[in-house]
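Quarterly update, task 2.4: flavin mononucleotide-bound model.
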Amino acid sequence: MPDTPITFGWFLPTSGDSTWLADPSGHIPQSRALFDEIVDVVDKAGFSYMLMPVNAACWEATVVGSYYAARTKNVAPLIALRSAYCNPVLSAKMFATLDQISGGRLCVNLIAGINDDDTKADGIPDTKEVRYEKMDEEVQIMKRLWTSHEPIGFEGKHYQVDASIEPKPLQQPHPPFFLGGASEQALEISAKHSSVHLFWGDRPSGIAKKIEDLKVRARKYGREEVLQFGMRLQIVCAETEDEAWADAAKLVAGADGMRLANMRGKTDAVAGIRKTSEANRQVWKLLEESGEDMMLAPHLWAGISKVRAGAGIAVVGNPDQVAATLDEFVDAGCSSFCLSGYPHAKAARIFSEKVLPKFKGRISRALPQAA
Ligand SMILES: Cc1cc2nc3c(=O)[nH]c(=O)nc-3n(C[C@H](O)[C@H](O)[C@H](O)COP(=O)(O)O)c2cc1C
């Protein structure tokens, strides 16, 4: 769908930033000053949303999102919500309040959690399967609370709710949901509830197949035209291709085997993530199959997956090459890009000055419509 307007988002690294992912000396700790610098660049640059992630090392996503909703004028927080962590009546009320206070600048990213061990350590004993069951019920409850003026009488397997809430959200019918996950349950819930399904990196041909599958699922719920698709990618962009590859090499220099940044620091984090996350298994499989150079396509590089879980696939190149590679994902059916790069303020500045202008006339700042 090359004519579909494209929406860009950026990532706020609330577990800290880095200039050298393979070595702790490259870590830039979390601080308000770090976040302020990144958010100020992003807010002025033409991005529509800013992803606030969740994990044990992250600052709390809804609190950070609320603070930056007040500090910014344009960009909307895309707040990760982990199922089973929060009573859905409270979630509905917090998000409706934030949507009102921010002038309708809020999106919610549905997340089941990347590692069962971490979730258990947080005091949530549910398996991933149960967390997804709860996610489905939580979203149903939030949607009904946001749109009903009567007590909703919800009778689910995990929740029984007979409330109504105020305020209602400003965005009508309610703020949009994004979802990141790749298991059967994730795909089904996304087809049923999301406005944007987010993928970690893959080749454009692989993404086209996944989109086809999701469209078939969405059709069952009458949502084939509603569900949009987005890529969560890293960007390593420099004036010349050689500089970009040198920057990419520096990021992972000295990495021996898997070392995970941004996790709780347990030695078995890799095993826990592999066990829990289909989305991550797919990314690490691409890395394993890519061979010595870790290339998936001419400007698509899996190298960052050696040193972090999740968004480890990067677009590497000069501004023309980066824009052309993103356009391959547009041709595959994507209309949203949730991006990041190291360090985040500098990478956002380069992307906004050098790459965004190449999409002139094709960018939408409007948030996706929920339905
Ligand atoms: C784009 C994207 C963003 C994600 N963000 C987070 C996050 O902030 N925190 C987290 O714990 N997991 C995150 N995840 C992982 C999800 O928790 C996902 O549900 C996990 O991979 C396990 O589910 P699955 O087997 O359905 O893939 C993200 C996944 C994707 C694809």
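Highlight for this quarter: The chain has one domain: 7-359.
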